């Protein structure tokens, strides 16, 4: 473990635990009676409480204790899991997270606990069937038990003797260790727990109490319990007795149910065995080194190419191959499945459904699709916005849906798949679709479109991404905060991706995002302006042409050029970047585009295409806006990478200014 | 601007000079124009010959170029401007002092131009004093301490205060 401060490690683990609790709670909203899920939440809370106290997070431990107690009552069937309760515990989870991260508002805790008490107590008045079979809790004379702890119990720190003591504390208990399950000495692994115990437990002990003793090993252990007949407490009678409470574990496997998604010790164990946790910063450092290696290697290849030394060339080729392989491996290391990203939206949709009073089902497809970690993080905000739009504006209320002959529950579908070098993420809903008439009216009102101007459907829909556009008549809490789809579009373009909207009125909307799998290496077009060199991402380049002397002169007054009957704004990079070297005789224009908008960039020379390892700019240069990063060239020099989205936006401003002047 | 601190990773703050318990501090001294400056030796990563610099258009004047230092893009700052000296071409002895700074919560490398690099010396707190309020032509906040060493006066600059206006990008 590379993290030295134990509280840092605790925070990381606690956040994971809380995420798992959240997922289990969200699952619980669909299956309120699922005992396995309830157990799962309880165990998560219990572990959190314990380790929180251990690491000195006392406020967290105390608060979690209350939630845990409430959930314990649910688990024991003394309170019922309701949607209200789950929602409250979800809020409590957020508070716990704040406690873990140390930015909690203390007053929140009290309010949540009050809500929790109300949620737990209310249903208790109406007696309902508890989730555990009531029969098992009926008065019994005792139990005949046979159990064997998980083989790794001792290795994982379970104190078997303490468990036996706990069992003894339940009632009059006779324990017999059976050694027939222990293999001969030469096959014995000394750390394995192999003893089977037979126990006769007398007294009115509920079955649940026995399960509680073994709570944390229950999933992996063998446990069979047969009630003792009240009149005849001999074990022989158990064979004839109908089994009202079959052993938990065999029952589950026998019925062929898939193992429920429980977490806790078992899953944690699996994860620790197969994965290594590495701080993201170390991966970034490694990526830097690989980038340096790629650059050094290209210089080596260049040198070797200039010399007629066959041995040197073969070594250079070998290094080239290794560097390429290493780069590919490095890329894979940074890839994470989108399930991490998608998982965070379940909560969002749950909250949105409660806020809007709509019934919303979130479907996710293709969660194993992998994208670069950084790309995934930067996709979060745009996707939140798109999902909010879908839930808030897209989906109808249940009543409207029923009137329209749709199911009351609206569906939002989040899907991902890989296509070539890009990940494709689609968000679709089966709501009302985009109201063309309203888009039209709105854009005409704001002057984006002249009244009566003929637009194709695609052009009309594209207006949704125009700055300042928002069709929501009423600004709600959820969307329409002045942040429009244009911001989403810009962010996606910053990731060098594209966004596309398809909508059928009455049937729903689909938004498709295409995102490159990685940001770390791009294909670029190397250009020269004065003495400086710049890289333009090749994916954004539409065409390169020469700016004729005549065109150059003619365009001096305006910054627009006619390109195949279309006016394209252009920027003279030497003016923009205040280059004082004399311009080349024949200037070139590189036309770059994002979606439908394009802008021409006037440069002195087009050097050629160049594989670019993208490096972040220092905080001194990040805010300038024209550059998205920098790269090291084969000769050791530095070239800045142009931020196409920003430059296109600048071109749009020029165009708008020219149109106003005209 | 949020709180700035320059540290060696062990969390020492810039504005206060971290004299050790004997009241001493190890520094690297270098000349720039007519002044002699000192930077904590623990901050210095490397001293390299001047590298080909790439101008960043529209960048703050204080840090308007970057260099490729072992595959990393490192911004270069010239302390001449904040200390009211005129720009001068590099000499045969010019160097780049690469220091590691923690600005906000980010660690970054920064190249400092130097006309001549001297040696690592130990300064004594006893012979140091605050910059006088009169008689100096520079911004007082840019100087942490002035230290007498023989006939010279060595300036301990406050890098955090000097760099703060240039953070966050565009301008100048």
**Strands side by side in the biggest sheet of chain B:** 9-1-2-12-11-10
**Integer-rounded radius of gyration of chain B:** 15 Å
Largest sheet of chain A: 5 strands, mixed
Strand residue content of chain B: 35-45%
CATH topology (level 3) name of the largest domain in chain A: Heat Shock Protein 90
Structural class of chain A: alpha+beta
Name the descriptors.
heterodimer, A: about 650 residues, alpha+beta, Four Helix Bundle (Hemerythrin (Met), subunit A), Alpha-Beta Plaits, Helix Hairpins, 5 domains, 5-stranded mixed beta sheet, about 20% strand, B: about 170 residues, mainly beta, OB fold (Dihydrolipoamide Acetyltransferase, E2P), 6-stranded mixed beta sheet, 1 helix, 12 strands, about 5% helix, globular
Short description:
The complex is a heterodimer of chains A (662) and B (172). Chain A has 662 residues and is an alpha+beta fold.
Which helices and strands occur, and which strands form pairs?
The complex is a heterodimer of chains A (662) and B (172).
Chain A lengths: L5 H25 L4 H20 L3 H18 L7 H19 L4 H20 L8 H4 L4 E7 L11 H11 L1 E7 L17 E7 L4 H7 L8 E6 L20 H7 L10 H10 L5 H27 L3 H24 L1 E3 L1 H18 L3 E6 L4 E3 H22 L3 H6 L6 E10 L2 E8 L6 H10 L11 H6 L22 H10 L3 E7 L3 E9 L4 E9 L2 E6 L3 E7 L1 H6 L5 E4 L2 E7 H4 L10 E8 L2 E7 L1 E9 L13 E6 L5 E5 L1 H18 L1
Parallel strand pairs in A: 6-8, 13-21, 16-18
Antiparallel strand pairs in A: 1-3, 1-4, 2-3, 5-7, 8-9, 9-11, 10-11, 12-13, 12-19, 14-17, 15-16, 17-18, 20-21
Helix pairs in contact in A: 1-2, 1-4, 2-3, 3-4, 3-5, 4-5, 11-12, 13-14, 14-18
Chain B lengths: L23 E9 L2 E6 L3 E5 L5 E2 L9 E5 L2 E6 L17 E9 L2 E9 L1 E9 L3 E2 L13 E7 L2 E6 L1 H5 L9
Parallel strand pairs in B: 2-12, 6-8
Antiparallel strand pairs in B: 1-2, 1-9, 3-7, 4-5, 5-6, 7-8, 10-11, 11-12
Describe the fold and architecture:
The complex is a heterodimer of chains A (662) and B (172). Chain A is built from 21 helices and 21 strands. Chain A has 662 residues and is an alpha+beta fold. Chain A folds into five domains: 6-125, HPT domain (Four Helix Bundle (Hemerythrin (Met), subunit A)), CATH 1.20.120; 134-251 and 263-272, Alpha-Beta Plaits (2-Layer Sandwich), CATH 3.30.70; 280-334, Orthogonal Bundle (Helix Hairpins), CATH 1.10.287; 353-516, Histidine kinase-like ATPase, C-terminal domain (Heat Shock Protein 90), CATH 3.30.565; 521-661, Roll (SH3 type barrels). The termini of chain A are far apart. Chain B is mainly beta and 172 residues long. The model of chain B is unreliable at 1-14 (pLDDT under 50). Chain A binds chain B through residues 288-289, 291-292, 295-296, 532, 576-579, 615-627, 630, 632, 636-640, and chain B through 52, 54-60, 62-63, 66-68, 70-75, 103-104, 106, 108, 110, 163, 166-170.
């Amino acid at each position: 473990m590379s993290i030295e401060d134990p509280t840092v490690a605790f925070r990381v683990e606690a956040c994971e635990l809380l995420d798992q609790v959240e997922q289990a709670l969200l699952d619980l909203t669909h299956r309120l009676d699922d005992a396995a899920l309830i157990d799962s939440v309880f165990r998560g809370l219990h572990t959190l409480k314990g380790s929180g106290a251990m690491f000195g997070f006392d406020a967290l431990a105390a608060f979690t204790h209350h939630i845990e107690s409430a959930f314990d009552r649910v688990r024991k069937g003394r309170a019922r899991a309701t949607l209200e309760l789950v929602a409250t515990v979800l809020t409590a989870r957020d508070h716990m997270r704040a406690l873990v991260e140390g930015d909690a508002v203390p007053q929140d805790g009290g309010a949540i606990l009050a809500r929790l008490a109300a949620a737990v107590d209310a249903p208790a008045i109406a007696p309902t069937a508890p989730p555990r079979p009531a029969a098992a809790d009926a008065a019994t004379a005792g139990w005949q038990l046979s159990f064997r702890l998980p083989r790794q119990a001792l290795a994982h720190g379970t104190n078997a003797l303490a468990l036996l003591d706990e069992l003894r504390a339940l009632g009059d208990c006779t324990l017999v260790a059976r050694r027939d399950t222990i293999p001969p000495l030469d096959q014995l692994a000394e750390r394995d727990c192999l003893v089977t115990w037979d126990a006769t437990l007398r007294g009115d002990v509920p079955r649940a109490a026995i399960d509680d003793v073994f709570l944390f090993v229950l999933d992996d252990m063998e446990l069979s319990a047969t009630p003792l007949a009240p009149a005849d407490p001999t074990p022989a009678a158990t064979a004839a007795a109908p089994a009202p409470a079959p052993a938990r574990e065999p029952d589950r496997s026998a019925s062929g149910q898939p193992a429920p998604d429980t977490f806790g010790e078992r899953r944690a164990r699996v994860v620790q065995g197969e994965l290594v946790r590495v701080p993201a910063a170390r991966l970034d450092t490694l990526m830097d080194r690989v980038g340096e290696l790629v650059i050094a290697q290209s210089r080596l290849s260049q040198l070797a190419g200039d010399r007629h030394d066959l041995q040197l060339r073969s070594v250079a080729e070998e290094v080239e191959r290794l560097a390429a392989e290493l780069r590919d491996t490095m890329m894979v290391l940074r890839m994470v499945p989108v399930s991490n990203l998608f998982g965070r939206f379940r909560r969002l949709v749950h909250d949105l459904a409660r806020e809007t009073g709509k019934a919303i089902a979130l479907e996710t497809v293709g969660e194993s699709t992998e994208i670069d970690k950084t790309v995934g993080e930067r996709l979060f905000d745009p996707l939140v916005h798109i999902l909010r739009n879908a839930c808030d504006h897209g989906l109808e209320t249940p009543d409207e849906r029923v009137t329209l002959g749709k199911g009351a529950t609206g569906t939002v579908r989040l899907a991902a798949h890989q296509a070539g070098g890009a990940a494709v993420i689609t968000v679709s809903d089966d709501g009302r679709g985009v109201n063309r008439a309203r888009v039209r009216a709105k854009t005409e009102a704001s002057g984006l479109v002249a009244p009566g101007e003929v637009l194709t459907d695609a052009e009309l829909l594209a207006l949704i991404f125009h700055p300042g556009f928002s069709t929501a008549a009423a600004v709600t809490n959820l969307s329409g905060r002045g942040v429009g789809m244009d911001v989403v579009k810009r962010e996606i373009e910053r990731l060098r991706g594209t966004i596309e909207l398809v909508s059928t009125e009455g049937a729903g909307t689909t938004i498709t995002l295409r995102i490159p799998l990685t940001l770390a290496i791009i294909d670029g077009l190397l250009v020269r302006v004065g003495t400086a060199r710049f890289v333009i991402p090749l994916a954004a380049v539409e065409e390169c042409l020469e700016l004729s002397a005549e065109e150059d002169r003619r365009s001096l007054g305006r910054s627009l050029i006619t390109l195949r009957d279309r006016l394209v704004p252009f920027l003279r990079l030497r003016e923009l970047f205040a280059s004082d070297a004399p311009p080349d005789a024949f200037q070139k224009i590189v036309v770059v585009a994002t979606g439908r908008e394009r802008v021409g960039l006037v440069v002195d020379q087009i050097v050629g295409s160049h594989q670019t390892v993208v490096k972040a700019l220092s905080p001194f240069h990040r805010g300038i806006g024209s550059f998205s990063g920098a790269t090291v060239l084969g000769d050791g020099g530095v070239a800045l990478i142009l931020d196409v989205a920003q430059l296109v936006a600048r071109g749009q401003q020029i165009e708008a200014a020219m149109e106003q002047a005209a | 601007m949020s709180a700035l601190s320059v540290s060696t990773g062990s969390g020492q703050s810039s504005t206060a000079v971290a004299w050790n318990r004997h009241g001493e501090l190890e520094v690297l001294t270098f000349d720039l124009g007519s002044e002699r400056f000192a930077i904590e030796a623990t901050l210095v990563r490397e001293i390299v010959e001047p590298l080909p610099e790439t101008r960043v258009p529209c960048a703050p004047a204080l840090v308007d170029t970057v260099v490729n230092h072992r595959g990393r893009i490192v911004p270069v700052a010239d302390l001449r401007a904040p200390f009211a000296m005129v720009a001068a071409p590099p000499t045969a002895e010019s160097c780049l002092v690469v220091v590691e700074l923690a600005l906000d919560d980010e660690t970054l490398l920064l190249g400092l131009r130097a006309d001549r690099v001297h040696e690592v010396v130990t300064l004594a707190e006893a012979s140091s004093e605050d910059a006088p309020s009169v008689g100096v032509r520079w911004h007082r906040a840019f100087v942490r301490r002035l230290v007498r060493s023989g006939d010279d006066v060595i300036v301990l600059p406050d890098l955090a205060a000097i760099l703060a206006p240039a953070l966050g990008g565009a301008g100048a």
